[in-house]
Amino acid sequence: MTSTSTQSDRAALSDHDLALRSVAYRRSMLRWIKHAGAGHTGGGLSCIDILNVLYNRVLRVSPEAFGDPDRDRYIQSKGHAVEALYVVLADRGFFPEARLETLCGYDSPFVGHPTRAVPGIEHNTGALGHGLSIGVGTAIAGKKDRRDFRVYVLMGDGELAEGSNWEAAMSAAHYRLDNLVAIVDHNTLQITGRTRDVCCNEPLDEKFRAFNWDVRTVDGHDFAALTDALVSAGPTGRPRVVIADTVKGKGVSFMQDVAKWHHGVPSDGEYAQAVRELDALSEQLARGRGGAR
Amino acid sequence: MSAPAPSMYSPEATAMAEKLGLKMGRPNLEVFAETLLSLAKEDRQVLAVTSDSRGSGKLGPFGQALPEQIVELGIAEQNLVGVAAGLASAGKTVFAVSPACFLTARALEQIKNDVAYSDNPVNVIGISAGVSYGALGSTHHSLHDLAALRAINNIDVVVPADNFETREVVRQSAKRAAPTYVRFGKAPVYDLHPAGARFELGQSIRLREGTDVAFIATGEAVVHALLAAGVLAETGVTARVVSMHTVKPLDAQAVLAAGRECGAVITVEEHSVFGGLGEACAAVLMQAGASLPFQIVGIPDEHTVTGSQADIFRHYGISMDGLAARAAGLLRRGRPR
């Protein structure tokens, strides 16, 4: 099967390879946001390492076999971080990256939140608190049909204020969906400020545990740790949540951990600085002198 | 102790039904549940998804016969619709069943995004719709649902009038795989169609010929229009009666024909007068340049009167006498020149 062979090819990618890709993804993402004049910058930068691991190591999906009923499903519930998803899908061959020239433009499929009009995207998302329910439904279907695909849902920590997520969390445990993995991009910031200050939903791990989930907390920029949390087997009959501790705006010094970069387009000067920083990181990595962190 | 619900039909209305040869059928809700069970027995991909609503949805027998084909989610309508969308995306034929009042208000965003916008072919089934739960109060009424869903792209809206229409819409919806909202009530309804009638989504059914006035009605209001037509006939007024079971996409040709061929048009629905069947028909007629006496009968913009479904229908003139009087009044006003 195409997706399986592609999977094994990608499994050969080292953490170092992934680190180089993440820098490239960040550069591309900023380029297209700058080009479009719009985008969710901070949350894209915080989850791009997660997307990198998912699409280059974990998900059994490929452009050639996207209609395969046995493919893994990825649902991006935090749909606003769509620019990150676009660049990763382009890199994985779902469409030529040049198509992002039309990002947010008239009659473009590349709108500011995921839609199925873009090759590789499973569901139209963007209103928060929807993805996990869709994931639960897909995972129940997988169980009923005895298919071995897994369903991955990426959510933001701010998004977890939506009550529908907890309805979904309850049902995932009730239906013993060990084929479902939720990932929380735990960057601790939302548009107004610190999530704990806006309306505290911590501690997330204890909440998911109380909902009978298998909880893993990892550094969301550590490729090895993410990989293990996303693929390792857990207790039978329990859905897993990976709480990925991340930094909003990761990779660009002046965007890191700053709420105002939730969405925002860098000025020419800011963009040039961001590119310089990412180029430097890339060179450093290429010389093999450091990791991604 | 609650008093027995007053009959939906006055003795005169019952007599008229008899005169018109109408036989009392069963609640559309029961016919829905029975039809779904038979479909699900034939095809294990057919699923009922419920939010603690298997009792109110008459799906107890379904759950007992096919426990693997019912997905229970508890009292959580948002999750109900989201999960239904996920199931549909994975190839299941999904009927998401919940009282219309909760389903189309609390879970409206899930219907809009996860079903309609995402093109997931969920059959969203609003049970005990309109004022079926009359005496339970406005929390349990759905008088907004047609308006809300008419304004959402890529979902059809169907309101069957009797057992035949209910059976057909369920069967056809199961086959055609498109986002669909179907709503109906739980009271027994008269059978309106002769044996061998044809039902096609989007194609209204003319139940009675007439040219003085046309009643264009939907759902459980249709029979009252038919009875009113019987009363009007006794005064020499011929009334056309159209069952507009599909509110979206609207059978515009039937509306235009009524506007062209009849002296007046009255729409009737168990819904707010805002945004439902009536305004849909008005838009068709106005935009075609039709000018004729026209009235929308439904629930007005006020705190709905309390009482049973029958009380509420009678109060707002969704009744044989109420509709006959409306038609007579409208015809006296005449067609403007």
List the helices and strands and how they pair.
The complex is a heterodimer of chains A (293) and B (337).
Chain A: H1 2-11, H2 15-36, H3 41-58, E1 73-76, H4 82-91, H5 131-144, E2 151-156, H6 163-174, E3 180-186, E4 189-190, E5 193-194, H7 195-199, H8 204-210, E6 214-219, H9 223-231, E7 240-245, H10 268-286
Parallel strand pairs in A: 1-2, 2-3, 3-7, 6-7
Antiparallel strand pairs in A: 4-5
Chain B: H1 11-19, E1 23-27, H2 28-42, E2 46-50, H3 60-65, E3 70-72, H4 77-89, E4 93-99, H5 100-103, H6 108-117, E5 122-127, H7 145-150, E6 156-158, H8 163-176, E7 180-183, E8 188-191, E9 205-208, E10 213-217, H9 222-234, E11 239-243, E12 246-248, H10 252-261, E13 265-272, H11 277-287, E14 294-299, H12 309-315, H13 320-333
Parallel strand pairs in B: 2-3, 2-4, 4-5, 5-7, 6-7, 10-11, 10-13, 13-14
Antiparallel strand pairs in B: 1-8, 6-12, 9-11
Helix pairs in contact in B: 2-8, 4-6, 9-13
Structure overview:
The complex is a heterodimer of chains A (293) and B (337). The longest helix of chain A is centred in the N-terminal third of the chain and has 22 residues. In chain A, the strands form two sheets. Chain A has a five-stranded parallel β-sheet, with helices on both faces. In chain A, strands 4-5 form a two-stranded antiparallel sheet. In chain A, strand 6, helix 9 and strand 7 form a beta-alpha-beta unit. Helices cover 43% and strands 11% of the residues of chain A. The N terminus of chain A is likely disordered. In chain A, helix 3 packs across helix 9 and helix 5 runs parallel beside helix 6. Chain A is an alpha/beta fold and 293 residues long. Chain A has ten helices and seven strands. Chain B has 337 residues and is an alpha/beta fold. Helices cover 39% and strands 20% of the residues of chain B. Chain B contains 13 helices and 14 strands. Chain B has a seven-stranded mixed β-sheet with strand order 3-2-4-5-7-6-12, sandwiched between helices. A five-stranded mixed β-sheet of chain B has the order 9-11-10-13-14, sandwiched between helices. A two-stranded antiparallel sheet of chain B has the order 1-8. In chain B, helix 2 packs parallel to helix 8, helix 4 packs parallel to helix 6 and helix 9 packs across helix 13. Chain B is globular. The model of chain B has no long low-confidence stretch (mean pLDDT 95).
